[in-house]
Amino acid sequence: MTTPTLETRYVFTITARIGDVVTAGETGIGVRRIIPIIGGEVTGAVTGKVLPFGADFQTIRPNELIDLEAKYAFETDDGATVYVENKGMRFGPVELLHKLKRGEPVDPKLIYFRTVPKFETGHETYRWLMEHIFVASAARHADRVVIDVHQVM
């Protein structure tokens, strides 16, 4: 007997609009940044709006590798509230990461930005979100983060 083959299937995109970055400074393990999530939308197999609260809590290590941990929620078009915890990392050429920090455009294909979102909801229609593992590919823009969510089959 062999183990099942890992495959993924695209399911939806979360576009999270972001506010101004708050920096707590160098903490000994890196620079702590907090980026408010102020709204957005969900499109694809799940549709809705990102609620205007939550944040991405980042640590920028000395080599510019960024550890990410975002906590926020979205409301589906049919009224379900879905809590999201999304952990991941962003890394790439230092000069491009500095451009992103300044809010300048960078081709998302040049930055490695991957996450593992976990979902929680009490709404029966969306319980499947809690019964699977998801991975995501993301892109940072000056005013938003676009996250393509894929279900691991």
TrEMBL record:
Q: Which residues cross the membrane?
A: none
InterPro entries the record matches? UPF0311 (IPR020915)
Q: Per its UniProt record, what Gene3D superfamilies does this chain match?
A: 2.40.160.20
- Pfam families cross-referenced by the UniProt entry: DUF3237
Q: Which HAMAP family match?
A: UPF0311
The record's listing under PANTHER family reads: UPF0311 PROTEIN BLR7842 (PTHR37315)
- Family membership: Belongs to the UPF0311 family.
* Name of the protein described by the UniProt record: UPF0311 protein ABH992_004902
Q: What is the scientific name of the source organism? A: Bradyrhizobium yuanmingense
